[in-house]
Each structure stands twice: as C-alpha cells, then as structure tokens.
What does this fold into?
Amino acid sequence: MKEFMMIFIGADYADLGLSPDELQNRMGKWFAWSNKMEQAGISKSGNALHPQMRRIVGQNRTVTDLTSAEVKEIVGGYYIVQAEDFDAVEKIAQDFPDYDLGGTVEIREVMVFDN
Amino acid sequence: MENKHIDHLFRYHSGKMVSVLTRVFGLKHLDIIEDAVQDTFIKASLAWRNKQPENPEAWLTRAAKNRVIDIFRKLNTEKKHLPTLTYGTDAIAINELFLDSEIKDAQLRMIFTACHPKLDPKDRIAFALKTVSGFSSKEIASALLIKEETIKKRLTRARKSIQKSKLQFKIPQGKSLPLRLESVMEVLYLIFNEGFHSNKSDKLIRKELCGEAMRLCKMLLQNEHTRSSATYALFALMCFHSARIEAKTNSEDEILDLEHQDRSLWHFPLVALGNTMMNKAVDDDTFSCYHYEAAIAAEHLRARTFEDTNWSKILEWYQCLYDIQPMPIHLLTMAVVSMQDSNLKDAKKFLDQLESKDLEQRAYLYYGALSDYHKLNSNYSEALTAIDKALELVNNKLEKEHLAKKRFKLIEPSQLN
It folds into this structure.
C-alpha cells in the first residue's frame, strides 16, 4: 500500500455565495465521502484550510497577503489516503463533492525513502 | 457514525440567528450580521465534514453566541455605535436571548419588519424569504422566476427603506397590531401562492415555498398576540391547498385542473389538520377572505369525484367572498362555477357585470370563460371569436396550449355541420 495525497483546489465557498441549504447539502456529501473512506480503512488524515494566505516569493522574499477573492483558485484542503495506485485513488476521488463548482482534485503520491 | 442531518437545519438556523443577532445589534447592522451568519455556516460545513457534533442545534446556537462577541469586537474597533448592552456584564442577558421562547420572539419581530407597510410590497416577499427563511438571492430568484439581479435590487431597496424609516425591530402592539398582522398574512399568502399556483418552476421549489409559508404561519399561531381567527383560517387554507399539491401536475409536469386530478393522491392528514384549524378559525364570527377561500377549498376536497362537487355551495361561498372583497376575478370565477352547475342564467348575470379590461393582464381568462358560455349556448361562431381573442391576449405558454386545445374542440362540431 502506498500513501497518496488528494489536494482540493477551487474557489472558496465564501466567494461563491452559497446559501445555507446548499452548504448543508455539500456538508452532507463531504461527510458521506469521508465516512466511506473511514469505513474502508483507507483514510489517514486530512484538513481544511483557511482561505487567507501569505505568500513569500523570490530572491527578495517579497511578501504579499492575499485573499481568496484575489486568487481565482486556492487549495482548500487535503486528504491523505492509503491505496494501491493512482487508479485506485482516482476511483476514490469520484465522490469528491465539489466538481460542479469547478473544483479540482490533484492526486500526488507521498514519497517514501529507503531506510 | 450516522449522518445527523436534519432537513433545512442550516436554513432554519440562519433565520433564527439573523433574527436574534438583529435583536442584539439592531437593524442598522444587518449587513454585518448577515455576513457573520453566512460565515458560521461555511465554518460548520467544513467542521462537520469529518465528524458531526452530537447535538448540531446546540453547536449552531453556541456558534451564534460566539458571533455576538465577534460582532461586538468588530463594531468596537470600527468605532461604530454600540448597542446599550455591554459585553461581559450582560453575558447573562445575551444567554437569555437564546432561549427558545426568545428566539421565536425575535423571529416574529423579523417577520413583522419584513412585512412592514413602509416597504414596497414586492420587496417584502424577497426580504422575508432572505432574512426570515434563509434563502439566498439566487434561490429566491429561481423560486419566484425573477432575475437574480432584480431580487438583489429589491433586497437593497428593502434595507434602505428600513434604515430610512428607522423601523423598530418589534412586534406592534395595541391598535396597530391587527393592521400589521393583515400585512404579514398577505405576504405569507403571496409566498404560498407563488409556490402553489406557479406553473413554471419545478415541483421541488414549489413545495419548498408552500412549506415555508406554512412554517411562518405556524409561528404566528404559536404566539398568543399574533394568532387570530384569520391566521387560523389562512393556515387551514394552506393545509387544504397543500393536500392537493401532488395531484396538481402529472408525470410530465403538466398542470392538471381539478377535473383531471387523481383524487387518490390527495393527502388526507393535511385535510384533517386543515379541518382542525378551521374549527379554531370560526371561534368568533369575524370572517376574513381566508375563511371563505378555505371554505371553498374544503368544499372541493369534500367531493369524491369532480361530478360530486357541490357547485351551488361553492357559489355561495364565492358570493360571501365577493361581498367582503369585491374583485372582478371573483365575478369571473362565479361565472365559471355557475357554468359547471349548468346554471347559464347566473353565468350570464356574472359575465354581464364584467368587462375584459377589469381583469387587466388576465383578460384572456374572461374571453376563455365567455367562449365556454357561448359554447354551452351552442353559439359556436361567437365562442370561436371569444377564444381567438383569448389566444391573442394570453402570454403564458401552458395557458396558451390549454386554450388552443379548447379552440380545437370548438371547431370540431362546427365542421360537422
């Protein structure tokens, strides 16, 4: 078994002006998804991230504070799961609830070093 | 772990939170309050992804209390006018505002604010659906079939009128209460009708609007000051209509009139509830238009088949309704009812009191009825002239199809001649 990270990229919920009903429905789908992974015993960890960000770029270490509204897409969170290969994770990622909001799931394998 | 997901929990709580926070901070801070509430639900939706709280409602109430503190801080740093409550010493007072009875009181205050006569009638519905019911402007737009931009404008205009008129966030008392209550009931009635009579949006949205109007009406009934015989009658009317909602459309989502509805789909527990409410509504003898409308709806429900309908009783109720609410549309309905009862003399009497222009944009209904009248008198050419006039004036696509079908049936017998 290998470890993979699913990184969720997309617009911030606050910028989409979702209604309470829509938020509740989404929450339900996320809950069902994480529940499914947990029951399959494949989820390792995961977090949601605050939309505020501070970027430090380049030689001069230029610092900028950004809000999600200024950047179209942000990393909103991640999960780490155990799986056989990319295909298996792709299958898991089918249940990601926010594709309809233009969301993206990026799958990356966690590197393991010998000894 | 099971999903402790209560239908519309977020939406209902949004209305509660906005109301209670408005009671603490006043209507002038509504913008900040709505943002804070929105933020709470985003946080909840993220926090509950992996693990849902044992008691979701308690979680949300706690979050709302925390928002009180946040907003105090925010207003403090912005040096904005703070309400008289001071944070810390009055923490107990704040806690008390979150008692169930106080939350209900705050929600009623919000309903009365949203339905205030100082607001434009069109803005009242949008504002009520937003602040009391927790719908987004996008959801309101799709429910009312109005552009989202227009809804946003109405919401802004409502907020401005509230600030300009310095509306008080309270339930009116004494002499002004009955009048204001009337305005509230009118808004609830309109919201319900948007759901029940709209033939454009899908069934789910229609049911949601009806359910919402009933929920708000129930809130009025739960408070001894805001319940009246008219409120009971309005609730009864909503029950009677809702009982038929499943039967109103067929599987292709086409509208079915009373004649063609499958009566086995009527939901009788709602009819029973409506009857209970109606009994309470007639406790005193001041009857409102809701009383008569409910009586008419009940009369339709009493008939096992369309043919069993007691048209003369229905006509009697319409006459009562017309007496207290002399609207041209009631005359037209009475003409139609008389025709159902094969009472052409009465039908003519009612039609003669009407002119097409009385019905404004619904003039096509007048010509439709006039065509039926001529047809029943076997005056096919006059019936045809009237239906053509109706077709010329109708806008709605479904209504147009309905009239076209009628026209087709009209030319059949004349071709036989």
Observations:
- The CA atoms of residues 72 and 86 of chain B lie 9 Å apart.
- The mean pLDDT of chain B is 88.
- The first helix of chain B runs from residue 9 to 25.
- Chain B touches chain A at residues 1, 3, 5, 8-11, 13-14, 38-39, 41-42, 44-46, 48-50, 52, 134-139 (CB under 8 Å).
